[in-house]
Amino acid sequence: MDIQISHVSKSFDQKQVINDITFSIPKGEISCLLGPSGSGKTTLIRLMIGAIAADQGSIQIDDIPMPHMKMLKKVGFMPQNDALYDDLSADANLSFFGGLYHMDNSALKKRINEVLAIVDLTKHRWKLVKHFSGGMKKRLSLAASILHSPKILFLDEPTVGIDPVLRRTIWDQFQMIKHAGTTIIVSTHVMDEVSECDKAALLYNGTLIEYDAVTTLLEKTENGRVEELFFIASDSKSGAER
Ligand SMILES: Nc1ncnc2c1ncn2[C@@H]1O[C@H](COP(=O)(O)OP(=O)(O)OP(=O)(O)O)[C@@H](O)[C@H]1O
Protein backbone atom coordinates (compact mmCIF):
# COMPACT_ATOMS: atom_id res chain seq x y z
CA MET A 1 0.00 0.00 0.00
CA ASP A 2 1.41 3.38 -0.86
CA ILE A 3 0.80 6.66 0.94
CA GLN A 4 0.43 10.09 -0.60
CA ILE A 5 0.98 13.03 1.71
CA SER A 6 -0.01 16.26 0.00
CA HIS A 7 0.63 19.75 1.39
CA VAL A 8 -0.08 18.67 4.96
CA SER A 9 0.17 21.23 7.77
CA LYS A 10 -0.68 20.95 11.44
CA SER A 11 -0.53 23.41 14.33
CA PHE A 12 -1.02 22.94 18.06
CA ASP A 13 -1.91 26.03 20.09
CA GLN A 14 -0.99 28.32 17.16
CA LYS A 15 2.44 26.67 16.86
CA GLN A 16 2.99 25.08 13.45
CA VAL A 17 4.57 21.66 13.98
CA ILE A 18 4.05 20.25 10.47
CA ASN A 19 4.70 22.70 7.68
CA ASP A 20 3.33 22.02 4.16
CA ILE A 21 4.74 18.51 3.76
CA THR A 22 4.35 16.65 0.45
CA PHE A 23 5.82 13.26 -0.42
CA SER A 24 4.79 9.73 -1.42
CA ILE A 25 5.79 6.57 0.38
CA PRO A 26 5.95 3.53 -1.91
CA LYS A 27 4.66 0.11 -0.91
CA GLY A 28 6.82 -2.82 0.06
CA GLU A 29 9.68 -0.74 1.45
CA ILE A 30 10.92 0.52 4.78
CA SER A 31 10.74 4.31 4.89
CA CYS A 32 12.05 6.13 7.92
CA LEU A 33 11.07 9.48 9.34
CA LEU A 34 14.33 10.80 10.64
CA GLY A 35 14.74 13.94 12.71
CA PRO A 36 15.73 15.40 16.06
CA SER A 37 13.41 15.37 19.04
CA GLY A 38 10.44 17.66 18.45
CA SER A 39 10.85 17.75 14.66
CA GLY A 40 7.33 16.39 14.13
CA LYS A 41 7.82 12.65 13.53
CA THR A 42 5.12 11.44 15.93
CA THR A 43 2.69 14.10 14.73
CA LEU A 44 3.23 13.06 11.11
CA ILE A 45 2.63 9.39 12.02
CA ARG A 46 -0.55 10.33 13.93
CA LEU A 47 -1.72 12.25 10.87
CA MET A 48 -0.96 9.30 8.58
CA ILE A 49 -2.83 6.75 10.71
CA GLY A 50 -5.77 9.15 10.97
CA ALA A 51 -5.52 9.65 14.74
CA ILE A 52 -5.52 13.43 14.25
CA ALA A 53 -6.75 15.57 11.38
CA ALA A 54 -4.56 17.86 9.30
CA ASP A 55 -5.34 21.59 9.29
CA GLN A 56 -4.49 21.68 5.62
CA GLY A 57 -3.65 19.16 2.91
CA SER A 58 -4.58 15.52 2.50
CA ILE A 59 -3.28 12.04 3.20
CA GLN A 60 -4.30 9.05 1.11
CA ILE A 61 -3.44 5.41 1.55
CA ASP A 62 -3.96 3.53 -1.72
CA ASP A 63 -6.02 6.47 -2.97
CA ILE A 64 -8.36 6.33 0.06
CA PRO A 65 -8.45 9.63 2.01
CA MET A 66 -7.50 9.17 5.66
CA PRO A 67 -8.95 8.75 8.19
CA HIS A 68 -11.15 5.92 6.91
CA MET A 69 -12.75 3.01 8.81
CA LYS A 70 -11.89 0.67 5.94
CA MET A 71 -8.20 1.21 6.58
CA LEU A 72 -8.28 0.34 10.30
CA LYS A 73 -7.74 -3.37 9.71
CA LYS A 74 -5.02 -2.74 7.16
CA VAL A 75 -2.92 -0.47 9.34
CA GLY A 76 -0.72 -1.52 12.26
CA PHE A 77 0.68 0.96 14.77
CA MET A 78 3.31 0.54 17.44
CA PRO A 79 3.26 3.62 19.69
CA GLN A 80 6.34 5.08 21.33
CA ASN A 81 5.08 4.09 24.79
CA ASP A 82 4.03 0.47 24.99
CA ALA A 83 0.26 0.10 25.25
CA LEU A 84 0.38 -3.19 27.17
CA TYR A 85 -1.39 -4.45 30.28
CA ASP A 86 1.18 -5.27 32.95
CA ASP A 87 -1.11 -7.57 34.92
CA LEU A 88 -1.88 -9.76 31.93
CA SER A 89 0.30 -12.42 30.30
CA ALA A 90 1.74 -11.96 26.82
CA ASP A 91 -0.94 -14.33 25.52
CA ALA A 92 -3.75 -12.40 27.23
CA ASN A 93 -2.43 -9.07 25.93
CA LEU A 94 -2.40 -10.41 22.38
CA SER A 95 -5.87 -11.96 22.81
CA PHE A 96 -7.12 -8.55 23.92
CA PHE A 97 -5.73 -6.88 20.78
CA GLY A 98 -7.13 -9.70 18.64
CA GLY A 99 -10.57 -8.92 20.11
CA LEU A 100 -10.21 -5.29 19.07
CA TYR A 101 -9.64 -6.46 15.50
CA HIS A 102 -12.60 -8.88 15.74
CA MET A 103 -10.37 -11.84 14.89
CA ASP A 104 -12.11 -15.16 15.34
CA ASN A 105 -10.80 -17.44 18.06
CA SER A 106 -9.09 -20.17 16.05
CA ALA A 107 -7.45 -17.69 13.63
CA LEU A 108 -6.35 -15.62 16.61
CA LYS A 109 -4.74 -18.57 18.42
CA LYS A 110 -2.82 -19.54 15.29
CA ARG A 111 -1.72 -15.99 14.69
CA ILE A 112 -0.59 -15.55 18.32
CA ASN A 113 1.69 -18.57 17.83
CA GLU A 114 3.09 -17.00 14.67
CA VAL A 115 3.71 -13.50 16.02
CA LEU A 116 5.27 -14.76 19.25
CA ALA A 117 7.66 -16.84 17.14
CA ILE A 118 8.51 -13.81 14.96
CA VAL A 119 9.47 -11.74 18.01
CA ASP A 120 11.08 -14.70 19.77
CA LEU A 121 8.81 -14.67 22.83
CA THR A 122 7.19 -18.09 22.47
CA LYS A 123 8.62 -19.36 25.72
CA HIS A 124 7.38 -16.30 27.60
CA ARG A 125 3.80 -16.61 26.38
CA TRP A 126 2.23 -17.20 29.80
CA LYS A 127 4.45 -14.81 31.76
CA LEU A 128 2.87 -11.60 33.15
CA VAL A 129 4.07 -8.53 31.29
CA LYS A 130 5.08 -6.87 34.57
CA HIS A 131 7.90 -9.42 34.71
CA PHE A 132 9.12 -8.57 31.19
CA SER A 133 12.27 -6.52 30.51
CA GLY A 134 11.95 -3.30 28.49
CA GLY A 135 13.19 -5.08 25.36
CA MET A 136 10.69 -7.92 25.78
CA LYS A 137 7.89 -5.36 26.10
CA LYS A 138 9.02 -3.69 22.87
CA ARG A 139 8.97 -7.05 21.10
CA LEU A 140 5.51 -7.84 22.50
CA SER A 141 4.26 -4.43 21.32
CA LEU A 142 5.63 -5.25 17.88
CA ALA A 143 3.82 -8.61 17.99
CA ALA A 144 0.57 -6.80 18.90
CA SER A 145 0.99 -4.34 16.04
CA ILE A 146 1.33 -7.11 13.42
CA LEU A 147 -1.26 -9.46 14.93
CA HIS A 148 -3.93 -8.63 12.33
CA SER A 149 -1.39 -8.94 9.45
CA PRO A 150 -1.52 -5.25 8.49
CA LYS A 151 -0.50 -4.24 4.99
CA ILE A 152 1.16 -1.15 6.37
CA LEU A 153 2.93 -0.80 9.69
CA PHE A 154 3.79 2.42 11.53
CA LEU A 155 6.47 2.18 14.21
CA ASP A 156 7.08 5.23 16.40
CA GLU A 157 10.65 5.21 17.76
CA PRO A 158 10.59 1.43 18.27
CA THR A 159 14.22 1.13 19.34
CA VAL A 160 14.42 4.00 21.81
CA GLY A 161 16.08 2.84 25.05
CA ILE A 162 17.08 -0.49 23.51
CA ASP A 163 20.63 -1.84 23.73
CA PRO A 164 22.59 -2.32 20.46
CA VAL A 165 22.29 -6.12 20.42
CA LEU A 166 18.52 -6.11 20.84
CA ARG A 167 18.29 -3.22 18.39
CA ARG A 168 19.89 -5.49 15.78
CA THR A 169 17.35 -8.24 16.56
CA ILE A 170 14.46 -5.81 16.28
CA TRP A 171 15.67 -4.47 12.94
CA ASP A 172 16.04 -8.06 11.68
CA GLN A 173 12.40 -8.56 12.64
CA PHE A 174 11.39 -5.43 10.70
CA GLN A 175 13.26 -6.72 7.64
CA MET A 176 11.45 -10.06 7.99
CA ILE A 177 8.07 -8.28 8.19
CA LYS A 178 8.96 -6.20 5.12
CA HIS A 179 9.94 -9.30 3.14
CA ALA A 180 6.58 -10.82 4.05
CA GLY A 181 5.01 -7.92 2.09
CA THR A 182 4.27 -5.22 4.68
CA THR A 183 5.11 -1.57 4.00
CA ILE A 184 6.88 -0.10 7.04
CA ILE A 185 7.14 3.51 8.18
CA VAL A 186 9.44 3.90 11.16
CA SER A 187 10.38 7.05 13.04
CA THR A 188 13.77 7.44 14.67
CA HIS A 189 16.18 10.07 15.83
CA VAL A 190 19.09 7.61 15.66
CA MET A 191 20.90 8.69 12.51
CA ASP A 192 22.66 5.33 12.06
CA GLU A 193 19.33 3.55 11.66
CA VAL A 194 18.87 5.23 8.29
CA SER A 195 21.07 2.52 6.75
CA GLU A 196 18.39 -0.06 7.63
CA CYS A 197 15.82 1.75 5.49
CA ASP A 198 15.14 1.97 1.77
CA LYS A 199 13.93 5.56 1.85
CA ALA A 200 14.29 8.36 4.37
CA ALA A 201 12.25 11.49 5.02
CA LEU A 202 14.37 14.04 6.92
CA LEU A 203 12.28 16.27 9.17
CA TYR A 204 13.56 19.46 10.73
CA ASN A 205 11.31 21.84 12.68
CA GLY A 206 8.24 20.37 11.02
CA THR A 207 9.62 20.82 7.51
CA LEU A 208 10.59 18.03 5.13
CA ILE A 209 14.15 18.88 4.18
CA GLU A 210 14.86 15.76 2.10
CA TYR A 211 13.04 12.64 0.95
CA ASP A 212 14.79 10.12 -1.21
CA ALA A 213 16.38 6.68 -1.43
CA VAL A 214 18.88 6.33 1.41
CA THR A 215 21.71 5.57 -1.05
CA THR A 216 20.94 8.81 -2.95
CA LEU A 217 20.81 10.83 0.28
CA LEU A 218 24.14 9.47 1.46
CA GLU A 219 25.72 10.28 -1.92
CA LYS A 220 24.81 13.94 -1.25
CA THR A 221 27.01 13.96 1.84
CA GLU A 222 30.77 14.36 2.01
CA ASN A 223 31.48 11.85 4.76
CA GLY A 224 28.60 9.42 4.20
CA ARG A 225 26.78 10.52 7.37
CA VAL A 226 23.21 11.68 7.11
CA GLU A 227 23.67 14.21 9.98
CA GLU A 228 25.40 16.46 7.43
CA LEU A 229 22.08 17.05 5.67
CA PHE A 230 20.63 18.37 8.92
CA PHE A 231 23.64 20.64 9.47
CA ILE A 232 23.17 22.05 5.97
CA ALA A 233 19.45 22.64 6.68
CA SER A 234 20.11 24.35 10.02
CA ASP A 235 22.89 26.50 8.49
CA SER A 236 20.68 27.66 5.65
CA LYS A 237 17.85 28.40 8.10
CA SER A 238 20.06 30.46 10.39
CA GLY A 239 21.52 32.15 7.28
CA ALA A 240 18.01 33.07 6.17
CA GLU A 241 17.22 34.45 9.62
CA ARG A 242 20.35 36.61 9.76
N1 LIG B 1 -1.00 17.32 21.34
C1 LIG B 1 -0.11 18.30 21.31
N2 LIG B 1 -0.35 19.51 21.82
C2 LIG B 1 0.55 20.52 21.78
N3 LIG B 1 1.77 20.38 21.21
C3 LIG B 1 2.09 19.20 20.68
C4 LIG B 1 1.18 18.08 20.70
N4 LIG B 1 1.78 17.02 20.08
C5 LIG B 1 3.01 17.46 19.71
N5 LIG B 1 3.19 18.75 20.06
C6 LIG B 1 4.39 19.54 19.79
O1 LIG B 1 4.70 19.37 18.42
C7 LIG B 1 6.11 19.33 18.22
C8 LIG B 1 6.47 18.05 17.50
O2 LIG B 1 6.23 16.95 18.38
P1 LIG B 1 6.41 15.45 17.92
O3 LIG B 1 6.09 14.59 19.10
O4 LIG B 1 5.64 15.23 16.68
O5 LIG B 1 7.98 15.39 17.59
P2 LIG B 1 8.93 14.14 17.46
O6 LIG B 1 9.84 14.43 16.33
O7 LIG B 1 8.12 12.88 17.37
O8 LIG B 1 9.73 14.19 18.83
P3 LIG B 1 10.35 12.99 19.72
O9 LIG B 1 11.48 12.42 18.91
O10 LIG B 1 10.82 13.70 20.95
O11 LIG B 1 9.22 12.02 19.97
C9 LIG B 1 6.74 19.45 19.60
O12 LIG B 1 7.10 20.80 19.79
C10 LIG B 1 5.62 19.06 20.54
O13 LIG B 1 5.75 19.70 21.78
UniProtKB/TrEMBL annotation:
* SUPFAM superfamilies documented for this protein: P-loop containing nucleoside triphosphate hydrolases
Annotated ABC transporter domain ranges read 3-230
Task: State the Pfam families in the record.
Answer: ABC_tran
Q: Which GO terms describe its molecular function?
A: ATP binding; ATP hydrolysis activity
Q: Which UniProt keywords apply?
A: ATP-binding, Nucleotide-binding
Q: Cross-referenced InterPro entries, in alphabetical order?
A: AAA+_ATPase (IPR003593), ABC_transporter-like_ATP-bd (IPR003439), ABC_transporter-like_CS (IPR017871), P-loop_NTPase (IPR027417)
What PANTHER family does the entry give? ABC TRANSPORTER G FAMILY MEMBER 20 ISOFORM X1 (PTHR43038:SF3), ATP-BINDING CASSETTE, SUB-FAMILY H, MEMBER 1 (PTHR43038)
Question: Protein name, please?
Answer: ABC-2 type transport system ATP-binding protein
Species for this entry: Paraliobacillus ryukyuensis
